[in-house]
Amino acid sequence: MPPRKIIIDTDPGQDDAVAILLALASPELEVLGITTVAGNIPLSLTSLNARKVVEVAERRDIPIYAGCDAPMKQALTTAEHVHGQSGLDGYELPEPALPLQDTHAVDFIIDTLRSAPAGTVTLCPLAPLTNIATALQRAPDIAPRIAEIVLMGGAYFEVGNITPAAEFNIYVDPEAAEIVFGCGAPITVMSLDVTHRLLVTPPRVEAIAALGNRTGEVVAGWIGFFERFDTAKYGSQGAPLHDPSTIAYLLDPTLFTGRHINVEIETRSPLTRGMTVADWWGVSDRPANATFMGDVDAPGFFALLTERLAVLP
Ligand code: BDR
Ligand code: CA
Question: What is the predicted pLDDT for the residue at 228?
């Protein structure tokens, strides 16, 4: 089987960084490019961090494209309180040598989907959906060409993490999320219902730290940093590792279970803006537009992640 072609759209973020490394460690996937967007931190830092992350994997062949620096219709909300001022606090990395590409991320997404055979490119958004929605708005013809959108965002049973009602990636740009969920492409959603089961407990961090390669050391440093905020918030044994769930799904979908349901995005109510209104129980007659994941084999996920990180430098 030829590797599956993916574009990772991201705002690194330690958990984004681990997702990128997992993809780069996996021969089943061909990363065509990494597109950055404003989210956890402003765009200049997400772009800098993406360049640093591919250099951890010693993969300067991966092109990185900077995208939108603000949500479609509102001011940017960031999450330095979780990820630190750099967005990637926890391990000091050198200035990267790899330059950004000149092309805008949105143009790269459009051009790639138009030039590749239809149904061969998968999008993996790990961040607010601004780049993807802007591409869909500017070039609606790309929607039927997308193989699948496997995104991290939203919640049903866990409801919200940045507000009582909304998950961060959707909350930052609800208008973008509304466009993406309405685009008609197959969508798979890694919600907080899944990622809150992927806790980086001390034995799991120790297993990564003990890999003996630099990647293991770097990843353990990142996880150790952002863990402080979430363990204090949730009183759990470790913080949820959100974004790598998307890549793990591409590698082994049997780790996950979910339902093909209708998911709509709340954009009007100030109280619940950014909520993913997921019809888990099938109580509306709205048509299904997404496969919404609700559970995961957490030990299986961490075994896969740890085994793959071991092959990196
Ligand atoms: C999402 O928000 C970001 O802070 C993380 O990187 C992840 O993509 C979790 O709600
Ligand atoms: Ca992210």
Answer: 73
Query: What pLDDT is attached to residue 38?
Result: 98
For the segment 237-259, the average pLDDT, to the nearest whole number, is 96
**46 CA to middle of ligand 1, Å?**
13
The answer to whether the bond into 13 is cis (omega within 30° of 0) is yes
Q: Which amino acid is at 122?
A: T
Q: How far apart are CA 257 and CA 146, in angstroms?
A: 22
- Taking the C-alpha atoms of residue 91 and residue 231, their distance in angstroms, rounded to an integer, is 19
Amino acid sitting at position 149? I
pTM, to two decimals: 0.97
DSSP secondary structure code for residue 269 in this structure:
-
Question: Pocket residues for ligand 1 (CB within 6 Å)?
Answer: 13, 15-16, 40, 79, 82, 126-127, 152, 161, 167-169, 242-243
Rounded Cα distance between 35 and 90, Å, is 23
Instruction: Note residues around ion ligand 2 (Cβ under 5 angstroms).
Output: 11, 13, 16, 126-127, 243
Question: Measured between alpha carbons, how far apart are the two ends of the chain, in Å?
Answer: 25
Q: Give the domain 4-309 fold.
A: Inosine-uridine Nucleoside N-ribohydrolase; Chain A (3.90.245)
Contact 262, 288 (CB under 8 A): yes
Residue 75 has pLDDT above 90, yes or no: yes
pLDDT of residue 42: 98
Q: Which atom of ligand 1 is nearest to the CA of 195?
A: 9
Burial-class residue 2 by CB neighbours within 10 Å (0-12, 13-18, 19+).
Answer: exposed
> Ligand 1 centroid to 168 CA: how many Å?
6
* CA proximity to 166, closest of 184, 144, 191, 141: 191
Ligand 1: residue of 49, 81, 82, 152 to mutate (most ligand atoms within 8 A of CB) is 152
Let me know if 242 is a catalytic residue: yes
- How is the chain split into domains, by residue range? 4-309
